User: Which sequence fits this backbone?
């Protein structure tokens, strides 16, 4: 995945540079974005709208999904897409927009996991996939110019996920994070083939050394803007 550095010189984009911050559940996307927000005032940072997913007029879709996936996967994923579209379509006068996750990882990691486990019935999967294909073909803002990937071993991500105690996730098994890890790998190889620069951060590292990687990554993103 270090093809990204060669691509820096060939990637020139209009303002703003749209960057998706990706990684498994619990990999540290929010932590990275918090750091960027405090460290740099030339970046626009947007966090994933989990609070909307856990409170849609009093309904906790995330909790319902984990509790009864067969019933709730479709409405939950549909709402994830809507809120992500809102997030990715925001306007900004900053040079770089960093966003936690994208419609692409939702589609190629989560929907695929739900399809292969049978959680999403083939017809429901097909509807969501067709919606995705439609808005990707219509809206440029859905496709990131670059991806930051916080790579973690699933056991580390799982430990972090459990330790932050998001109650909805208390029974999510390690096997699910292993499956998502593999799907992220497949999806990112696809994006790499499409020449999207991918900056990989070893997010297993402890915080004190991780910060150096964060700064290097921010420096590389800045180069894409030159
Ligand atoms: P993540 O999008 O991985 O966000 P996070 O805040 O857990 O990650 P980090 O610790 O790196 O900041 O997942 C949020 C929750 O939403 C998680 O339980 C997985 C779930 N989810 C889906 O089920 N489907 C989706 O399409 C997405 C994007 C998330
Ligand atoms: Mg997060």
Assistant:
């Amino acid at each position: 995945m270090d093809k990204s550095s060669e691509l820096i010189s060939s990637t020139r984009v209009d303002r703003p540079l749209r960057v998706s911050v990706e990684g498994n559940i619990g990999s540290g996307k929010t932590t990275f974005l918090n750091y960027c927000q405090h460290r740099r005032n030339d970046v626009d940072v947007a966090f994933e709208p989990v609070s909307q997913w856990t409170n849609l007029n009093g309904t906790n879709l995330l909790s319902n999904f984990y509790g009864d996936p067969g019933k709730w996967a479709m409405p939950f994923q549909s709402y994830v897409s809507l809120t992500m579209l809102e997030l990715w379509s925001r306007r900004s006068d900053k040079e770089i927009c960093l966003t936690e996750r994208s419609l692409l990882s939702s589609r190629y990691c989560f929907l695929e996991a739900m399809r292969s486990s049978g959680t999403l019935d083939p017809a429901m999967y097909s509807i969501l996939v067709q919606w995705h294909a439609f808005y990707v073909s219509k809206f440029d803002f859905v496709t990131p110019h670059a991806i930051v990937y916080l790579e973690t071993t699933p056991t580390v991500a799982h430990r972090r996920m459990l330790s932050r105690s998001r109650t909805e996730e208390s029974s999510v098994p390690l096997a699910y994070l292993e499956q998502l890890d593999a799907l992220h790998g497949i999806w990112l190889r696809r994006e790499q083939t499409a020449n999207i620069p991918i900056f990989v951060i070893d997010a297993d590292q402890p915080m004190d050394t991780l910060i150096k990687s964060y700064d290097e990554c921010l420096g590389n993103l800045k180069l894409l803007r030159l």
